[in-house]
Amino acid sequence: MCPQAAGRARAAPRAAGPHNVCRLLGRRAHGFYARDAGVAHRNNLGLLRKIMCQESTKFKNVWTTHSASPIAYERGRIYMDNYQCCISSIAQAPRILYQKSKCSKSEKIEDALLLECPLGEMLPSPSDYKSSLIVLTVQNWLLRLSADSGEVLEKVYLAGSCCKSFRYLSWDTPQEIMVVKTVQNKLPAAARQAGIQQSVLFYLAVFQVLPLSFIGMLEINKKIFGNSVTDVAVSNGILIVMHSMGLVRLYNFKAILEQFMEQPFDLGQEFNWNGQAGVVGKYPFGLPCNIKITDTPPLLFEASSLENAFQIGGYPWHYIITPNKKKHKGVFHICSLKDNALAKNGIQDMKCCSLEPDWIYFHPDMSGRIIHVGPNLIKVLKLKEVKNHADQMEIAEDFTIVANRENCVNNTVTVTASGRVVKKRFNLLDDDPEQETFKIVDYEDELDLLSTVAVTQIGADGRAHLDFHCNEHGILLKSIPFRESWDVTYSHEVYFDKDLVLHIEQKPNRRFSCYVYQMVCDTAKDD
Question: I want to staple 243 with a disulfide (CB 3.0 to 4.6 A). Which of 155, 228, 315, 509 is the partner?
C-alpha cells in the first residue's frame, strides 16, 4: 500500500465519527472518551457523592477554634488574624500552613480574593501556576500573596496624588478581570458648609490577573451619571449604577473602557502625564486615572426596584425586581429582558409573615432556574414556553422543599387543665424560632447538590442541621446535625466543600468561632 493510501485508511475512522456538538457532548457524558482528563475527575466526584450520601457515612466535628478577629474560608484554607494565619482544612486534622507576625493597623487587610491558575495557558512565572490570594490593605496597597506560604509575590500601590480610599475587591469576569473600588467620596462638613462641591463619587481600578496587569482607572462622576448615584458595581462586562430612588442603570463597561481610554499604561512603566511623573503602581505615585468619561455612555437598560434589588439570568434572559414601593416588599416580578414583559405566573409572593424577608435568586448551576426561599418553604422554579405561544414564557414549579413542622401546633384556642378556654390574640410568625426555619441555601457545584440549613430554637438552645438535596429533583439525600448550639440572633456562615463542612459563627462583641466537620465512615469504635 502506498503512503498516501495508508494515510487515507488511517484517517477513515476519524471521518466517520460524530461532528454534531450535541452528539459529541452526549457521547462524552456516557463515557465514550475514556482518555479525556475530565472523565476520571467526574467519575471520582460521582463516587464521592455516593459515599457521602450513604447512611453509614457521618460528618464528625474534628476541630473547633475561637478568635477575636474575623475568620474567613477559601477553598480548603481557613484564614484568621486578618489573614496573618492560614490553616489547611484538607488534612485529617487542620494544620497551620503559615503564621505571620501580627501586622500594624496601617497594614490591615480590608478585602481579599482567591486567585487560581487558569487551565491551558502559559504564564510568565512558576509562582503563577499555584493558588494565590489578592489582598487590599488599608493603606491602598494591592498585594498578591502565596496561598500556601503567605509570601508577597507582587505589590501595587493604588492611590495617586489625590486621596483615594480603596476598600472593595470584586470580579468583573471571575479569575480574569478584577475591579478595585473606593468608598464613596464625601467632603467634610466644614467643606460642605463652605460651599465646596464634590463631583467624583467613586474610583474604579481595573486589572487583568495572571499575569497581573493594569487596564485602567476611571471615576464615577455625578456630573455624568447624576446627583442621585448611591453605589456602583461591575459584573460580567456591565457597569451597574444604582440611584437613591431605586433606579438601576446598566452600561457596557467594555465599551466605556475602549471609548474613554486616554492612554494605556503598564505596571512598572515610567510616565510623565498630566503634570505627574513617576512609575505606574509604585509609591507614591500609584495609578493614573487614564479613563475620563466625558459624556454619558449609551444606556443598555434601566429598571426601578425597591432597595435597588435587581438580578439578571435565565434563558432566554429575564430579570427579577421588586416594585419600588415598601408595601410590595417580598413581592418579586420576573420579566423578560427583551421587552420587559411580565412572565406568565411571573409575580412570586409567598405572603410571609416573618421578621426576616424571603429571598429569591437565579440558580447558580447555570440551568436558568430560580430559587425562592421562605421561612418554611423553598421553591425551585423554571422558565418554559407558554403552550401555543412560543414568544411568551411562564414560571412553573420544578420542585419544592418543605421544612419539617409536623410537631408544630399553632392553635389560636387552647383549653387549660381546669377547663378554661384561652384565646390567643396573635399568631406565630412564619419564622418563629420555635419552628424549623430555613436560614441558608447553597449549591455545591462539583457534587451537584443543593444544601439547606434549617434551625429550631427552643429557649436558649438552638439546634440546626445541614441537608443535602438532589439538585435535579429536590430529593433529600443526607442530613447532618450540627453539634454546637445555634443562636438565631448571631451571624452564621456555612461552607460545604466536597467532604468538608465548615460553620463560622459571629457572636456579640466581635467574638468568632469556627467548627470544622469532616466526612468519616461510621464504625463500632466511633459509636
Answer: 228
